[in-house]
């Protein structure tokens, strides 16, 4: 499969703001045919698509309202009916709130798995698909451990395991689908603006001190990393982007 974004149809969950929006912008700059932005926020999604179309041209970005935990079938079917072939799926939607354990797993893990499997079936060359790429947004919390977010850790470790297993060379060779992971470090987004630890009363102050010592970056670093990973990575691999430094396989 060509590692070239030119003329690709790209679907991005959580695509209205932050990392998702930045990836859409970067992929359009690299020649993607269209980015389909899925998000639960109507206003932000509409504004995001409008902004990207103003920058890159009419119909280059499309917004579809979507709750990734509930709307897989109607939204994915609409996308496939409209564009016939989807080349890239980016599972970016997620939450960072350890006080909402079930919701964390539903969004960060189960929805990601369901969307991956739906488009894996659509893309697989052994069933008349054209191949493609699935990129899962994991996190440094998918391979490093601290004491503040055990449920978020669990969700991102799950993403890493799922990515490396589905992306195994055996599955790539029979399907023509790369499955890749991106592991951002601390990034300035809406997600990290107000994180909830599992025990804020005891951990809140300590966490505040902890985060100030971390290597922070802006979303543009993750957007660039998403291009680099698409262009260079082999299936089943995961890549760290931290402190705006070059990507490193993890």
Descriptive keywords:
single chain; eight-stranded mixed sheet; 250 residues; alpha/beta; 9 helices
What's this model, at a glance?
The protein is α/β, with parallel strands linked by helices.
Describe this structure in words.
Helix 1 (18-29) crosses helix 9 (219-232) and helix 4 (101-123) packs parallel to helix 5. It contains 9 helices and 8 strands. By secondary structure, it is an alpha/beta fold. The longest helix has 23 residues, at 101-123.
Shape: globular
Mean pLDDT reading: 95
Tell me about the biggest sheet?
Answer: 8 strands, mixed
Total count of helical runs of at least 4 residues = 9
Question: How much helix is in the residues?
Answer: 40-55%
Stretches with pLDDT under 50, minimum 5 residues: none
Number of strands: 8
Please indicate the percent range of residues in DSSP E strands (runs of 2 or more). Answer: 15-25%
- For the biggest β-sheet, the strand order reads 3-2-1-4-5-6-7-8
Q: Give the ordered list of helices and strands.
A: EHEHEHEHEHHEHHHEE
Oligomer: single chain
């Amino acid at each position: 499969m060509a590692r070239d974004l030119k003329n690709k149809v790209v679907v991005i969950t959580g695509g209205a703001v932050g990392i998702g929006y930045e990836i859409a912008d970067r992929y359009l700059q690299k020649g993607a045919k269209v980015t389909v932005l899925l998000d639960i926020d109507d206003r932000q999604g509409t504004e995001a698509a409008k902004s990207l179309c103003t920058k890159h041209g009419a119909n280059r970005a499309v917004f579809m309202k979507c709750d990734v935990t509930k709307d897989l079938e109607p939204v994915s079917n609409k996308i496939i009916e409209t564009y016939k072939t989807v080349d890239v799926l980016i599972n970016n939607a997620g939450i960072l709130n350890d006080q909402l354990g079930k919701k964390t797993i539903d969004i960060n893990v189960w929805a990601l798995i369901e969307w991956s499997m739906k488009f894996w079936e659509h893309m697989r060359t052994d069933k008349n698909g054209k191949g493609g790429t699935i990129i899962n947004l994991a996190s440094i919390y998918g391979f490093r451990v601290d004491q503040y977010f055990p449920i978020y850790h669990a969700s991102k470790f799950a993403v890493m395991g799922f990515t490396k297993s589905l992306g195994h060379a055996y599955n790539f060779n029979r399907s023509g689908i790369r499955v890749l992971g991106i592991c951002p470090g601390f990034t300035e987004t809406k997600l990290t603006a107000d994180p909830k630890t599992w025990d804020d009363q005891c951990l809140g102050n300590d966490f505040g001190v902890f985060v100030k010592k971390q290597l922070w970056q802006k979303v543009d670093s993750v957007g660039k990393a998403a291009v680099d990973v698409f262009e260079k990575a082999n299936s089943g691999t995961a890549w760290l982007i931290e402190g705006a430094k070059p990507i490193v396989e993890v």
